[in-house]
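Narrative of accomplishments. A recurring question from our advisory board has been how the design workflow behaves on a single, concrete structure rather than in aggregate. To address it, we present the structure tokens for one chain from the evaluation set, followed by the sequence designed for it. No filtering or post-editing was applied between the two.
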């Protein structure tokens, strides 16, 4: 019966190099897929805070799959991202509350020990898993090699090959059911498996019915895979479709041959669907890479914006606050960007964080310097307050006014102080100044009222002298002398009216001395000349002496006031400048005494 049956050759399965050329490359691709798309796989799950992240770690820490590893890496990254956001928010609130950024200390992260505990648990679990998996793959390799040895022995037994067909198929099934082996050994195993299968089927003498039945069952399985692959071409989840395709290729390799006339056709159908899925998978990752490239360029641009901020040129608090808002806006824009390529993502973040740290450190140093300067300004203004308070009760209106005006000018030249002290120190200085000037205003006002009253009195005296002058025939020397005595008893008049009044008074008195029987007035500075020139000599001498008197009096008051300033706080009394000022004051007093005597002589 078997003599008329043609040997059945093993179906040659053409494989698409990008998908199934080696199981090693597929395994590497799957591992990379898990690592590179971890965020996409797990970001759909929302974590409101770090506690929820730690709770999730507690659930999966003891698991050791590649997917769990990727998820844990994602959770770890997300945890520290949320923590950084909390620290940034605390710092900003601290600054908003007028806190010194240099004094800021973040709160203790009480959850971080738990996080590290679960990470260590996962690390240990994964180490155990890797060790067990390596041992399992070594055992599987030994089993597969043993099965291949048995298959090769059957394929080499030409006489008994027909009777061992079922055993050969059972060994094929056992070979496929054994688990994974080291990826470096997979390709060699499958090549030997295919070679032995081809050797077996080439040598097999089987009846046509059995062969056709086997071909039919294999065709049904492959058609089923083709249908499933064609459905996957429209699947929404590109990554899941690609992973399922890898599994289907493994199944395809384990299915036996089909009829020779449709082998190429059925493979072409499966390959066409595989090509579409592979292309979608490639386009997906190209899209991810494009997004990563865009994120990279966006983050580089933000770093360049920070680098463009020249902290050395920022010189005012307003400018610092404006630049701070600009930096915070840049940080907010940074958070909107996703991950860049993993080769540069960490370095970009380090660059960005370093630039932010540099800016805020410079700002903290600026505010520290401002604070020190404000403290120095406060000390200077306190000293001015003490000087103003020492002068506020002075009655030396002219010299004290000059001193307080000088203090006010010094105050304007001193820079600002801390806001919390600004109003208080200004009120203290202003109160001292106002106390003096209010007293001065009142005193000067009273003095001016007296001078105005004196002015009216002297004008009345001049009017009486003028009336006597008009009736000089009836006037008597006693009347004139009475008015002269009355004139002397009247006090000071406003300074701008003094010379005019005295001139009018002198003219009237001279008239009466020349026209009435009155003794001649004493002359000064030698022989007096007759006429108008003779009458003006005493008047000019007295005016000159009065001006000297007033000048020396003001000078003396200034020295007295300055002496008070120098004596303020001088407890040892050994200041040589004080001794010089005291000598100068004695000299001025002596000059004033001499001038008063000369004026009295003129008035006689």
């Amino acid at each position: 019966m078997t003599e008329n049956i043609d040997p059945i050759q093993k179906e040659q399965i053409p494989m698409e190099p990008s998908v199934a050329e080696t199981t090693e490359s597929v395994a590497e691709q799957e591992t990379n897929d898990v690592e590179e798309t971890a965020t996409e796989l797990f970001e759909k799950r929302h974590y409101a805070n770090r506690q929820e992240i730690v709770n999730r770690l507690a659930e999966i820490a003891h698991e050791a799959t590649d997917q769990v590893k990727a998820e844990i890496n994602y959770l770890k990254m997300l945890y520290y991202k949320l923590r950084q956001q909390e620290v940034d928010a605390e710092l900003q609130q601290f600054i908003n509350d007028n806190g010194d950024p240099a004094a800021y200390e973040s709160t203790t992260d009480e959850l971080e020990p738990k996080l590290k505990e679960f990470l260590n648990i996962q690390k240990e679990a994964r180490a155990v898993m890797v060790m067990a998996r390596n041992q399992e793959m070594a055992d599987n390799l030994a089993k597969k090699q043993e099965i291949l040895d048995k298959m090769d022995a059957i394929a080499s037994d030409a006489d008994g090959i027909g009777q061992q067909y079922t055993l050969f198929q059972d060994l094929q099934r056992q070979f496929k059911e054994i688990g994974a082996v080291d990826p470096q050994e997979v390709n060699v195993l499958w090549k030997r498996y295919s070679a032995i299968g081809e050797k077996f089927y080439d040598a097999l003498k089987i009846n046509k019915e059995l062969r056709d039945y086997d071909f039919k069952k294999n065709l049904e399985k492959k058609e089923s895979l083709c249908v499933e692959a064609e459905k996957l071409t429209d699947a929404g989840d590109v990554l899941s479709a690609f992973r399922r395709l890898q599994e289907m290729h493994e199944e395809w390799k384990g299915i036996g041959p089909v009829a020779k006339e449709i082998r190429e056709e059925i493979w072409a159908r499966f390959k066409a669907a595989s090509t579409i899925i592979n292309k979608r998978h490639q386009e997906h990752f190209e899209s991810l890479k494009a997004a990563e490239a865009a994120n990279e360029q966006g983050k580089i641009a933000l770093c360049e914006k920070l680098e463009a901020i020249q902290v050395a040129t920022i010189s005012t608090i307003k400018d610092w606050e404006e630049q701070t808002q600009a930096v915070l806006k840049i940080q907010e824009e940074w958070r909107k960007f996703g991950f860049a390529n993993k080769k540069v993502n960490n370095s970009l973040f380090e660059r960005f964080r370093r630039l932010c740290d540099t800016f805020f450190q410079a700002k903290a140093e600026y505010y520290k310097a401002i604070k020190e300067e404000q403290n120095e300004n406060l000390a200077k203004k306190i000293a001015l307050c003490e000087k103003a308070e020492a002068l506020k009760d002075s009655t030396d209106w002219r010299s004290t006014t000059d001193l307080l005006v000088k203090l006010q000018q010094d105050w304007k030249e001193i820079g600002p102080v801390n806001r919390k002290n600004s109003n208080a120190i200004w009120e203290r200085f202003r109160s001292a100044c106002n106390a003096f000037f209010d007293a001065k205003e009142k005193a000067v006002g009273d003095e001016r009222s007296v001078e105005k009253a004196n002015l009216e009195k002297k004008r009345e005296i001049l009017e009486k002298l003028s009336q006597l002058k008009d009736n000089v025939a009836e006037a008597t020397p006693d009347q004139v002398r009475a008015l002269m005595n009355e004139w002397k008893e009247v006090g000071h008049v406003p300074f701008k009216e003094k010379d005019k009044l005295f001139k009018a008074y002198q003219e009237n008195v001279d008239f009466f001395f020349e026209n009435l029987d009155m003794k001649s007035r004493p002359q000064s500075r030698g022989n007096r000349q007759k006429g108008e020139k003779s009458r003006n000599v005493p008047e000019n001498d007295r005016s000159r002496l009065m001006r000297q008197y007033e000048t020396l009096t003001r000078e003396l008051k200034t020295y007295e006031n300055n002496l008070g300033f120098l004596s303020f706080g001088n407890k040892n009394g050994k200041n040589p400048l004080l001794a010089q000022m005291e000598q100068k004051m004695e000299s001025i007093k002596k000059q004033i005494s001499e001038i008063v005597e000369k004026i009295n002589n003129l008035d006689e």
